[in-house]
Each structure stands twice: as C-alpha cells, then as structure tokens.
Write a structure and sequence with these properties.
Blueprint lengths: L8 H26 L6 H8 L3 H7 L3 H11 L1 H14 L4 H17 L6 H8 L4 H29 L7 H19 L14 H16 L4
Helix pairs in contact: 1-2, 1-4, 4-8, 5-6, 5-8, 6-8, 6-10, 8-9, 9-10
Length: about 220
C-alpha cells in the first residue's frame, strides 16, 4: 500500500527511500516465478504494494528494472567476494571453500539463485538483457574463480591446470543445482539435490582431489 497521509514527513521520506528496493525485490520474485516475458509491470507494482504510476516514477520499463536489480543486488555481492579474495590469508583450497559457501549463502539460497534458470530460458527472447547479465554477472563471477585458481597454482598448492576450462568445470554443477531447484526440483520428491550444503561439499571435495598437487 502507498504511505499513509498520517505519517510524519520523516516517515514518508524513509518510506520513499525504501520503495526502489521493495520494487526490485518484488520484480525479482516475479521474474523467477513467472519468467521475464510473462511478468507485467502492474503485477510488480501490486507485489510491491504501490500503484503502477509509482513504479514508473522509478523505472521506465521492465528492462530498466532488471538492470537496476542486478546493480543493486548482485554487483555489490560480487565486489565483496572479490575483496574477500584480496584479503584471504588461508590456503587456496580454503579460499575456494569459503568462496563457494559465501556464494550459496548470499546468492544461491536466495531469490537471486533463480536468475541463471531465468536467463537460460529467456536469453533468446531478450538477447540484450542476456548480454548484460553475462557482462555484469557471469564474467565477474568467472574472474573470482580465475583468481582463486591462479593463486593456488602460483603458490604450488594446485598443480598446473587449464584455468579457463577448470572454471567451466567448477561452474557447471553449481548452475545445475540452482536450475534444478527452480525447475524440476519443484516438481519431484527426488532428494539428490535437496541438501545443497552436502552437494556443494561433495562438489568441492571432488574438484580439490583433481586440483591439489600430490607428492
């Protein structure tokens, strides 16, 4: 609902400042639930508790709303993860473990975890948004893994590997996990991916077995 006229000026100001974040949260939920094409601006406004005219005061289109959602949610997280790599003092194996766990806590287990499935299903229909997502999310995410792997190779902890292909091998099962959760996982009682923490731990153990340099 719109802010009540009985609110103080300070309360109304705080409400106004909170609106963009509320609209973005509503949009992300609907994009993940219904798909980008099927989500209407009036549905986003209703989910956010505002009239459609208010939504258009902040965002002139769904495309603008999507881009702003990425900038306000995923971009800060990716920057924080990059800073974590800069300051991490443990082994590179521990760094990969910390990176994967942080990704799950901040992205995979939240509504943001539904974006890979969304982009896979909608990319052909909205190529400009797909390109934006690749440049803003995928490439910075790959760089996080690249830096972590290069760190391990440089220190001698990891054996010499094909870095770029290793990034693909690490990312693919993670994408499968979130795609499953937002597609077939919602329609089956199959428990193989119902415990993401165990899934991610096994994934990392298997990959580290191939990465670590052996005597």
């Amino acid at each position: 609902m719109e802010a009540s006229s009985s609110q103080s000026p300070a309360q109304r100001q705080r409400r106004k400042e909170a609106r963009p974040a509320e609209m973005i949260a509503a949009a992300l939920e609907l994009f993940v639930e219904k798909g980008f094409a099927a989500t209407r601006m009036d549905a986003i406004a209703a989910r956010a508790g505002v009239v459609k005219g208010t939504l258009y005061l902040y965002f002139d289109s769904k495309e603008t709303l999507f881009r702003e959602a990425i900038q306000r949610t995923l971009t800060p997280i990716l920057k924080d993860l990059a800073q974590m790599i800069d300051t991490f003092e443990g082994s590179s194996a521990d760094l990969l473990r910390a990176l994967l766990n942080a990704w799950w806590r901040l992205i995979g287990s939240t509504t943001l975890g539904g974006l890979p499935k969304l982009m896979i299903s909608e990319s052909r229909n909205f190529p400009e948004l797909a390109t934006y997502y690749v440049e803003t999310v995928i490439l910075p995410g790959r760089d996080l893994l690249r830096r972590s792997l290069q760190r391990g190779v440089a220190s001698g902890e990891f054996r010499t590997i094909d870095i770029e292909t290793s990034i693909d091998v690490l990312i693919a099962p993670v994408i499968m996990l979130v795609v499953w959760r937002y597609s077939l996982g919602a329609c089956t009682t199959d428990a193989r991916m119902s415990d993401p923490q165990t899934y991610l731990a096994v994934l990392l153990d298997l990959n580290l077995a191939g990465l670590l340099k052996r005597p």
